[in-house]
């Protein structure tokens, strides 16, 4: 569904990513791991169109979307959920969701899609008429996911869904992502919480200073001691 | 146009005089806009205030001419200071609107106070002595206007070579960089308004003998807009831009198309709009850029580690004995709204050591660095550097204590040459940067790769002579090779120059290798502190960076 | 006493015109961060539309048809201007290019009016009779301007909270990056915002034409006073703009009565400097003027 080939990207003259290749199939959760500043977020941003790749290609369902504007990619079905549970603080929960569905003009489908996601996160149904700024960080993250869900993307990119969220709320959020993938969506997640994220992922890759350091199935990486070493930056004299 | 009018033709000499005055005003507008970053739509009012004050003083108040001219200059300076006042508080379009309002109100007030200004009838004041030819048709007045225009140009060029000129450009590009270099951006801005008012005022004084008649309609808001557009058309920030801008906007409509004088304003508008859309760098700017691109050999100048080490210089005295505490933070608390950024952090950094600050995103590292450099204020707790409490001190004062910092995105200024980028650091220490690659004097840093830009900023901080260096992610984006070089540089700074370094860095590998001590932060609290060997074995630290719960 | 009532009533009416300019600023500023210097001259163009279309004895029916026509015409004009203004921003070569392009458009409009109509202010007749309020006769357009300002405020509130396009426009103001991630076509909505601002000043100019100064150099007066109203109310807040407009309007009416018309703008300028020095974020503003 989503295919990234030999991607180089960076900010201005700061090179961040070198020669990254990956593919995500429908129904699959792929996890991107890596230490702070390794380039994980940049990778998602480069795929979504916020950062223009300097080399390589991004294809969505066989269509080349390299360097396309993020709003166009979102309309084409590639949706990025930014880190830091960013929703529109002055809009109500309901309006935030409505805006999420606006890219797919189909009001009937919105009701059908909003139902299940509100069932999964009942707190959102309770706070439907409240402005999003009154929600806790975790609830905002749920809302951000709900906003993406009602857009029915074929590829979901999710940047650190657990960042700044109460521990208790992390499992349901990750569980939601897993179920969503089972419905046939290609899911690419960036996470810091290795163990928790690996438990819902099918495959994972570790980014090390802008390059793919390790990759494999979630089970393989769980057992690989090198993963932790990369995070701590030790014993891999560069 | 700078050639004197030899023909004695009245119309031509009049045009020649005016154009030179306008060039002088536009040059100063250019300085104000490009060097100091100040949007002023009100320079016409400053120009008019000088002229009108001369007229009022000399005719209605009956003062002597020299006194009248002095008063005129004082009026221009007063108005310039009036602009500088809001400029200390607000910037950009806010300031644009304030100055535009002044330009709009100025002629209205001239009419309103008709008892002093003769209202719409204007003031007639001829100074025939200045029109009497000295030789070959050259009058004292034409000499004066040429002197002024050339003086303004030369002055602008000279200003750029001075400390004040460099500081104006730094303050415009990055106020926080200005503060971190120990000076107030507001001061640099005020100086720019003052200098602009001085030159514009002098031009306004000469306007009186040039025209011999003052009327409110001569100083409408269009005059201010004309000055502003002249700069844009010629090319914002190009020394010669204002000359071309004035020629195009004044001479073309007023001389070549005399019959179409009514269309002059449309001309201003269309030319400015067209230039902005087609040549955003202005006419001179576009030509300069094209020439530069053609002559530039990419990767020519280099800011390599060797040159940085060389330019960093050797210690002029033996580094003071290491160990004694130089930076102390006790129980620091800082919250932003609902987010607690620092929750009781304490930190002690020994003189002449490298102290690493690590932790995940949002753990409070950069906040702590901002507290140490005065960019963030503690809600509770104490912080001192060299024994001086700095909790309530402004960043520029802390910088003057000998604290230098770098930023996550390097504050490297493409408007300055590479050497000037270093010189603004050396300005703090009062030294000259003269021992560098000559290419640094001619080339700008815009072609430098990222790693070299970081090194350039680090070099600047070193040259400030600060003995405490706060480095915010200096190794981000560097290659493995560059990282190793960078670690060597840090050790050199510590061992040879006795610097104290606080290093915020994502790249743990680098921190483990160069830091003497490390503080690990998480959600605003210290979770571990010690030598690298102790930290790397700490179970909580491992858990923090890998997210393992069972650790 | 009478004088005070006239100052208050007409000041609030004049203030409503300033408030309308301020609201039109807000619409564009919220979606793009741009302040359109040409907005004052666009208002004058709205008045000029009234001058050309309203006859010596204008009828209420034709007035009612012409009002939306004015709004639509200037919505189109401003959308065009918006497109031009946003062009150089696409490449983000010069971030403040809009300061110059919008000022240039303002200068061009002023010059065209000067050439076409000469330097004198134009008179426009209102189809509505003047009315008595608190014992003074007040020309109807003052009330019209107040009603129009309230109507636009309400309409914009409805638009921003009830329609998807309006929600999307609010979203741009709240978090540009998140809006793009959602799939909101930012550039298109920014041009819409310019269009809406055109409908506001176009209709405002048409309604207030009989009591407005319609001349080549009055645009700048309206743009400056509108900006002051917006700053007092807090840039971005439409309710604030209503209050700010009323304050500036009453102050400048008072200045005209007390010292004479030439001092109106001087008083406004004093208010602007006062507000910026004391409370740059305005009375109701959330975003402060950039302070460094």
What does this entry show, briefly?
The complex is a heterotrimer of chains A (238), B (551) and C (292). With 551 residues, chain B is α/β, with parallel strands linked by helices.
Give short descriptive properties of this protein:
heterotrimer, B: about 550 residues, alpha/beta, 6-stranded mixed beta sheet, 23 helices, 12 strands, elongated, disordered N terminus, C: about 290 residues, mainly alpha, two-stranded antiparallel sheet, 11 helices, about 75% helix, about 0% strand, disordered C terminus
Kindly describe this structure.
The complex is a heterotrimer of chains A (238), B (551) and C (292). Chain A is of the alpha/beta class and 238 residues long. Chain A has 10 helices and 10 strands. Chain A has helices spanning 40-48, 70-76, 93-101, 107-120, 122-126, 137-149, 170-182, 194-200, 218-223, 226-232; strands at residues 2-11, 14-24, 29-34, 55-60, 63-64, 78-81, 155-159, 186-190, 203-208, 211-217. In chain A, the strands form 2 sheets. Chain A has a 6-stranded mixed beta sheet with strand order 6-7-8-3-9-10, with helices on both faces. In chain A, a hairpin with a 2-residue loop joins strand 1 (2-11) and strand 2 (14-24). The model of chain A has no long low-confidence stretch (mean pLDDT 87). With 551 residues, chain B is of the alpha/beta class. Chain B has a 6-stranded mixed beta sheet, with helices on both faces. A 4-stranded antiparallel beta sheet of chain B has the order 4-3-6-7, covered by helices on one side. The termini of chain B are far apart. Chain C has 292 residues and is mostly helical. Chain C has helices at 2-32, 39-53, 60-91, 97-117, 140-162, 164-174, 176-182, 186-208, 219-233, 238-258, 264-278; strands at 131-133, 136-138. Chain C has a two-stranded antiparallel ribbon with strand order 1-2. In chain C, a hairpin with a 2-residue loop joins strand 1 and strand 2 (136-138). Chain C starts with a helix and ends in a 14-residue tail after the last helix. Chains A and C meet through helix 2, strand 6 and helix 3 of A and helix 6 and helix 7 of C.
């Amino acid at each position: 569904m989503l295919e990234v080939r030999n991607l180089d990207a960076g900010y201005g003259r700061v090179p961040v990513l070198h020669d990254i290749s990956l593919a995500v199939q429908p129904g699959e959760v792929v996890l991107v791991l890596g230490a702070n500043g390794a380039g994980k977020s940049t990778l998602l941003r480069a795929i979504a169109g916020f950062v223009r790749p300097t080399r390589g290609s991004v294809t969505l369902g066989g269509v080349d979307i390299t360097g396309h504007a993020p709003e166009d990619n979102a309309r084409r079905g590639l949706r990025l959920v930014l880190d830091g549970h960013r929703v529109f603080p002055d809009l109500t929960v309901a309006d935030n969701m409505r805006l999420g569905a606006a890219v797919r003009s189909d009001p009937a489908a919105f009701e059908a899609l909003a139902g299940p996601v509100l069932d999964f996160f009942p707190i959102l149904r309770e706070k439907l008429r409240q402005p999003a700024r009154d929600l806790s960080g975790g609830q905002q993250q749920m809302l951000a996911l709900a906003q993406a869900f009602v857009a029915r993307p074929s590829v979901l990119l999710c940047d650190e869904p657990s960042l700044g969220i109460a521990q208790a709320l992390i499992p349901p959020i990750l569980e939601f992502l897993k179920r969503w993938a089972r419905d046939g969506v290609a899911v690419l997640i960036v996470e810091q919480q290795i163990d928790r994220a690996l438990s819902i992922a099918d495959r994972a890759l570790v980014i090390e200073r802008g390059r793919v350091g390790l990759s494999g199935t979630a089970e393989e990486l769980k057992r690989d001691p090198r993963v932790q070493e990369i995070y701590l930056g030790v014993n891999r004299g560069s | 146009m700078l050639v004197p009018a030899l023909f004695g033709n009245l119309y031509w000499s009049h045009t020649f005089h005016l154009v030179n005055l306008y060039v002088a005003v536009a040059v100063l507008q250019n300085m104000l806009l490009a060097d100091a970053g100040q949007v002023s739509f009100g320079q016409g009012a400053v120009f008019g205030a000088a002229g009108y004050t001369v007229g009022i003083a000399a005719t209605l108040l009956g003062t002597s001419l020299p006194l009248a001219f002095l008063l005129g200059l004082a009026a221009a300076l007063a108005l310039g200071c009036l602009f500088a006042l809001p400029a200390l508080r607000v910037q950009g379009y806010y300031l644009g609107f304030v100055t535009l309002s002044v330009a709009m109100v100025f002629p209205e007030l001239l009419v309103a106070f008709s008892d002093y200004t003769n209202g719409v009838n204007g003031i007639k004041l001829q100074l025939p002595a200045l029109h009497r030819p000295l030789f070959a048709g050259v009058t004292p007045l034409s000499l004066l206007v040429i002197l002024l225009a050339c003086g303004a140009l030369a002055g602008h060029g000279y200003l750029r070579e001075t400390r004040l000129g460099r500081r104006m450009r730094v303050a415009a590009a990055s106020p926080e960089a200005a503060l971190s270099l120990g000076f107030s951006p507001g001061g640099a801005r005020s100086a720019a308004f003052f200098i602009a008012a001085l030159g514009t005022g002098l031009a306004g004084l000469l306007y009186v003998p040039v025209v011999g008649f003052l009327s409110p309609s001569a100083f409408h808001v269009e005059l201010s807009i004309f000055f502003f557009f002249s700069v844009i058309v010629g090319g914002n920030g190009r020394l010669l831009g204002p000359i071309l801008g004035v020629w195009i906007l004044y001479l073309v409509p007023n001389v070549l198309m005399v019959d179409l004088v009514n269309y002059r304003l449309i001309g201003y508008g269309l030319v400015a709009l067209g230039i902005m859309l087609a040549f955003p760098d202005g006419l001179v700017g576009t030509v300069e850029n094209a020439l530069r691109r053609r002559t530039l050999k990419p990767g020519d100048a280099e800011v390599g580690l060797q040159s940085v080490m060389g330019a960093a210089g050797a210690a002029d005295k033996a580094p003071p004995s290491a160990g004694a505490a130089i930076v102390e933070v006790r129980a620091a608390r800082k919250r932003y709204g609902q987010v607690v950024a620092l929750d009781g952090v304490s930190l002690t950094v020994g003189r002449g050591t490298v102290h690493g600050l690590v932790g995940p995103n949002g753990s409070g590292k950069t906040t702590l660095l901002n507290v140490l450099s005065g960019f963030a204020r503690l809600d509770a707790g104490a912080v001192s550097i060299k024994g001086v409490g700095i909790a309530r001190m402004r960043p520029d004062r802390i910088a003057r204590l000998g604290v230098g910092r770098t930023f996550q995105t390097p504050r490297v200024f493409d408007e300055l040459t590479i050497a000037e980028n270093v010189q603004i650091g050396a300005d703090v220490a009062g030294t000259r940067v003269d021992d560098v690659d000559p290419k640094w004097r001619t080339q700008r840093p815009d072609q430098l790769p990222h790693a070299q830009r970081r090194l350039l900023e680090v070099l600047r901080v070193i040259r400030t002579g600060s003995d405490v260096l706060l480095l915010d992610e200096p190794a981000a984006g560097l290659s493995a090779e560059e990282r190793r070089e960078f670690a060597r540089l840090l050790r050199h700074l510590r061992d040879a120059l006795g610097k104290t370094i606080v290093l915020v860095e994502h790249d743990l590998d680098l921190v483990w290798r160069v830091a003497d001590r490390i503080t690990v932060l998480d959600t605003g609290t210290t979770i571990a502190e010690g030598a690298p060997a102790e930290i790397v074995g700490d179970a909580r630290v491992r858990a923090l960076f890998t997210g393992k719960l069972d650790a | 006493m009478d004088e005070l009532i006239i100052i208050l009533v007409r000041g609030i009416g004049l203030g409503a015109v300033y408030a309308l300019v301020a609201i039109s600023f807000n619409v564009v500023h919220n979606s793009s961060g741009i302040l359109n210097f040409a907005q004052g001259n666009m208002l004058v163009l709205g008045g000029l539309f009234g001058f050309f279309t309203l006859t010596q004895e204008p009828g209420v029916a034709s007035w009612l048809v012409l009002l939306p026509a004015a709004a639509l015409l200037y919505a189109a004009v401003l959308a065009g201007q918006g497109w031009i203004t946003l062009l150089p921003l696409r490449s983000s070569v010069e971030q403040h290019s809009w300061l110059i392009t919008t000022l240039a458009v303002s200068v061009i409009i002023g010059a065209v009016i000067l050439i076409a109509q000469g330097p004198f202010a134009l008179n426009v007749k209102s189809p509505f009779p003047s009315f008595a309020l608190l014992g003074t006769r007040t020309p109807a357009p003052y009330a019209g301007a107040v009603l129009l300002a309230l109507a636009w405020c309400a309409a914009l509130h409805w638009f921003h909270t009830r329609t998807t396009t309006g929600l999307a426009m609010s979203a741009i103001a709240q978090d540009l990056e998140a809006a793009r991630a959602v799939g909101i076509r930012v550039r298109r909505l920014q041009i819409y915002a310019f269009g809406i601002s055109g409908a506001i000043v176009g209709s405002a100019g048409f309604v207030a034409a009989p009591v407005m100064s319609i001349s080549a150099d009055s645009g700048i007066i309206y743009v400056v006073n509108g900006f002051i109203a917006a700053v007092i109310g807090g840039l971005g807040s439409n309710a604030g703009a209503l209050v700010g407009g009323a304050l500036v309007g009453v102050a400048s009416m008072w200045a005209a009565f007390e010292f004479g018309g030439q001092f109106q703008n001087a008083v406004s300028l004093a208010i602007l400097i006062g507000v910026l020095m004391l409370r740059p974020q305005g009375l109701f503003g959330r975003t402060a003027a950039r302070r460094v």
